[in-house]
Amino acid sequence: MVAPLLIVVPLLAMASPPHSTAADVSSAHVQRGFVVAEVRCKHCHFLIRSNRKIGPGLLGVFDRAPTISGVPFARWDAEALDRWLTNPRAVKPNTEMRTPPIAKRDRADVIAWMATNY
């Protein structure tokens, strides 16, 4: 009975995708990022248009200067987006964006999607 377990554990480890980082823009992370954005962001943001909904559209946000006054970033790069998505109110107190915590992997995948979403 022990032998099959020894085979299955390494196979499960190989099947599990590695956690993405903010700089990872592989297609699997980009696709997963779009799915996460569909679930987490679509209620307040347009995903593939720049039009304003409740919040600004997310098309072309990556590498663009923020349009939110009082945000301390020159542009929305991976680090700035990660800080913002981790806790928008820590970046800009009294911001209207309210979001439940987003897991690190989900944030990284959304950022990967945003980085390719021009």
Descriptive report:
By secondary structure, the protein is an all-alpha fold. The chain has one domain: Cytochrome Bc1 Complex, Chain D, domain 2 (Orthogonal Bundle), CATH 1.10.760. The chain is built from five helices and no strands. It has helices at residues 2-15, 27-40, 78-86, 88-91, 104-116. Helix 2 (27-40) crosses helix 5 (104-116) and helix 3 (78-86) packs across helix 5. It is globular and about 35 Å long. The N and C termini lie far apart (53 Å). Mean pLDDT is 82; it is low at 1-23.
In total, the number of domains comes to 1
**What is the C-level CATH assignment?**
Mainly Alpha
DSSP E strands, number:
0
The helix-and-strand class reads mainly alpha
Keywords:
mainly alpha, Cytochrome Bc1 Complex, Chain D, domain 2, 118 residues, globular, 46% helix, 5 helices, 0% strand
Write the layout of secondary structure elements.
Blueprint: H1 2-15, H2 27-40, H3 78-86, H4 88-91, H5 104-116
Helix pairs in contact: 2-5, 3-5
Task: Offer a concise description of the structure.
The chain is an all-alpha fold and 118 residues long.
